[in-house]
Amino acid sequence: MQSQQDRYKAPARWLHWLVAVLVLAMVPVGFLMVQQGIGRSLQNALFLFHKNMGVVVALLVLLRVLYRWRNPPPPLPASLPSWQRRVSAATHGLLYALIVLMPLSGYVRVRAGGFPIEVLDRLGVGSLLPRSEALANTAKSLHYAGALALVVLLALHIGAALQHGLIKRDGIMGRMWPPHR
Length: 181
Ligand code: HEM
What we know:
5 helices, Fumarate Reductase Cytochrome B subunit, cell membrane, 181 residues, Cytochrome_b561_oxidase, Cytochrome b, mainly alpha, binds protoporphyrin IX containing FE, metal-binding
C-alpha cells in the first residue's frame, strides 16, 4: 500500500499531465506544419496554434520548475535497482532541459526572424530580441534537434511508465496517476 509520502502532490500531478498533453500535441503539429503542400490555410492555423500554445507551455513549465524547486519529488521505492534510478534521473533531467529549450528556441526563432506571436502582441508584449537571420537560423536548428531528442526521450519515458503501470504493477505509475487525489 502506497502512503501519501510516496506519491507526487496534486499540483505536481496536474502540472505533469497538462504539460504532457500539450507537448504531445505540439510535437506532431510542429512536424506537420513545416511540410510542403498541406495547404496555406491549414498551415496558418497550425502555426497560430503552435506559437501561441507554445507560450502557454512556457508558462506552465516555469510554474512546474518553481513548484518542483519548492516541493522536491517523493523518494523512489528502495526496491528499485540503482541502474534504474540513474536512468530515471538522467531521463527526467533531460526531459526538463528539453521542455525549457523548446519554447525558448521557438521564441527566439520567431522573434529574431521578425514574425508575430499573436497572443503576446495582443497583450502588448513586444519582442525581447532584435531581428537577426543568423540568430533565427541557430534557434531553428536547435528547435529541430531538440524536437528529435524529445521524441526519443518521450518514447523511453512513456515506455517505462507503461511497463511499470501495466506489466510490473509496482506502484511507480501510481506516484503520478491519477492527476487528482
Ligand atoms: C514544448 C514546446 C514546443 C515543442 C514540443 C515544439 C515542437 C516543434 C516541432 C516538433 C517542430 C518541427 C521541427 C522542424 O521540422 O523544424 C517545431 C517547429 C517550429 N516551432 Fe515549435 N515547439 C515548441 C514550442 C514553440 C514555441 C513557443 C514557438 C514560438 C513561439 C515555436 C515555433 C516554431 C516554429 C516557427 C517552427 C518552424 C521552424 C521552421 O521551420 O522555421 N515552437 N516545433
